[in-house]
Structure formats: structure tokens, C-alpha cells
Write a structure and sequence with these properties.
The chain is an alpha+beta fold. It has eight helices and four strands. The protein has one domain: NADH Oxidase (3-Layer(aba) Sandwich). Strands 1-2-4-3 form a four-stranded antiparallel beta sheet.
């Protein structure tokens, strides 16, 4: 799929079919992470691939009871590696690691769309509880959760603010 088609066709989906993601498609989504830019090329992030039904069910509770998390065949948890980034950037390292993890999550979300998969960005969660569920190292801080799979709905294109409303020229 051409890049601008990917952007046009990507929609948030909160309903997923009971259909596994082919390993080669998931591999391409995860490989997309490797092409994302990062501060100082430190790649200060970690990605957890959650396939366990039990773990996905626990994530529902940690994510304000967003039930669709348990429907998705795969849930990706993107974490900022604060320890890695702070070695070079000290106090700013936390911010840069959060940005790195967000960029990687965005790349994976777009790659999922290019592979014909649906996803939704989940930002409402208890980071300590998510860390416990995925057994994250203490220096890895969850930043974004993205369930992916085949859509069980036909999401409509959402409206966007006009560019003129958000753009400022300096």
C-alpha cells in the first residue's frame, strides 16, 4: 500500500475479529520499529508483545476497562527506556525516551494499517499495573498500548480540524 493510502485508510478500531495475525505480518509491523528515528539513535524503548489471553484480560482492568483489549489477537505495549536515554541526556532523558517510544508506536500502528490490520492507540492506563502485568523492568515505563488485529467493524473516517486552524507560521 502506498504511504498516503496508509494514512487515508488508517482508522481506530475497537472491535476485532477472532482471527490470529499471520506471523509474517506481525513481523513486518515489529520490524517497522527498527526504522523509527530516536534521540541520539539510542533507541530508548522496549516493546512487549502480549498474546496471552490472561495477560490481555488483566490489561483490560489496568486500562480503565476497555474491553476491546481482550478481543485483539495481539496487544503491543510500548515502553520508554528511561535508563538508556538518561545515560546520555540526564534529566531530559525521560522526555526523549517517552518521545522515542511514541514514535515507534506510531510507526508500528502505520505498518499494521499497511498490512491490512486495524489498531487503536490506548493512552488511558495505570502504568504501574501495566508494568506488573507485562513484568517490565523497573526502568521501562509504559507509554502507549496498541491492540492490533483484523477489524470487526467498519470505522468511519473521523473529522479533522482544518489545517489553517492548527498551523502557525513563524
Amino acid at each position: 500500500m502506498e504511504f498516503y493510502e496508509v494514512l487515508e485508510n488508517r482508522h481506530s478500531s475497537r472491535s476485532f475479529l477472532d482471527k490470529e495475525i499471520e506471523p509474517q505480518k506481525l513481523g513486518k509491523v515489529l520490524k517497522a520499529a527498527m526504522s523509527a528515528p530516536s534521540a541520539g539513535n539510542l533507541q530508548s524503548y522496549g516493546i512487549y508483545v502480549v498474546n496471552s489471553k490472561d495477560a490481555k484480560t488483566e490489561l483490560v482492568g489496568a486500562c480503565s476497562y476497555q474491553d476491546f483489549l481482550s478481543q485483539a489477537p495481539t496487544v503491543l505495549v510500548f515502553c520508554a527506556d528511561v535508563k538508556r536515554s538518561s545515560t546520555k541526556y540526564e534529566d531530559r532523558g525521560e522526555l526523549y525516551a517517552e518521545q522515542d517510544a511514541s514514535i515507534v508506536a506510531s510507526y508500528c500502528q502505520l505498518a499494521a494499517s499497511a498490512e491490512g490490520l486495524s489498531s487503536v492507540w490506548v493512552g488511558a492506563f495505570d502504568p504501574l499495573e501495566v508494568s506488573r502485568i507485562i513484568s517490565a523492568d523497573p526502568y521501562l515505563v509504559p507509554v502507549a498500548i496498541i491492540p492490533i488485529g483484523y477489524s470487526g467493524e467498519s470505522p468511519q473516517k473521523s473529522t479533522r480540524r482544518p489545517l489553517a486552524e492548527i498551523l502557525r507560521e513563524v
